[in-house]
Amino acid sequence: MGALAGKVALVTGASRGIGRAIARRLARDGALVAVHYGARKGAAQEVVEEIGKAGGQAFAVGSLLGVAGDAEALYEAFGAGMADRGEEPVLDILVNNAGVSGSGRIGDASPENFDRLFAVNVKAPMFLIQHGLTLMRDEGRIVNISSAAAHRSFPESVTYAMTKGAVETLTLAVAKEVAGRGITANAVVPGFVETDMNARRRETPEATAALAAHSVFGRMGQPADIADVVAFLASQDARWVTGQCIDATGGTAL
């Protein structure tokens, strides 16, 4: 029996990249996983099918984040998915992974882009947590995906870095707020990971090598590297870890 048998997890932005790896890992550990997607329904369904073929359980949940009423819409879709399985809409693990980047330097910033990044990267996780806590069982787990950009000077994407700093502040506040129910809240801090989000930064072998050089291991991170850390935080083994930002950068800038 897996470490997460009997648990229900919701992973946002799980149709690709880090979210996809997290969904697969939590399902492998026994959780029923709601695979959230924004626009990539086909990709999310592929994740569900992969999990099913591996002996796990999952269903897709479609909802656009960063728009009015997004949290309510997501949980409505989540409830419908649970009902289709004959299950009550309960939650044990919430992973706020969905995010957008592309802000550029401060001279390139625009109010429209600023608002979009904060809506998706900060506002959505906050209200997904707020609504999720009404469904979450005691001893639950909240894991927010942050970024090394919040810990080091990253002028190339200043607004994105700001959003991740806000996510970490949110994590601290939530951890203390929910401790009475035995719920933990933590953030995972990836560095450069081989995902679509970083594709433009590794268009040549030289560019990829430059990114890999940030890690003491001399390689870029893989989505599974982050998923394994999330799986630990989602497990009973992490019951005494809360309010933390776990560095998963492969020793970047040591």
From TrEMBL:
UniProt-listed Gene3D superfamilies: NAD(P)-binding Rossmann-like Domain
Oxidoreductase found in the keyword field: yes
Pfam families: adh_short_C2
Keywords: Oxidoreductase
Keyword Oxidoreductase carried by entry: yes
Family that this chain belongs to: Belongs to the short-chain dehydrogenases/reductases (SDR) family.
PANTHER family per the UniProt record, alphabetical: OXIDOREDUCTASE, SHORT-CHAIN DEHYDROGENASE/REDUCTASE FAMILY (AFU_ORTHOLOGUE AFUA_5G02870), SHORT-CHAIN DEHYDROGENASE_REDUCTASE FAMILY PROTEIN
Designated name of the protein: SDR family oxidoreductase
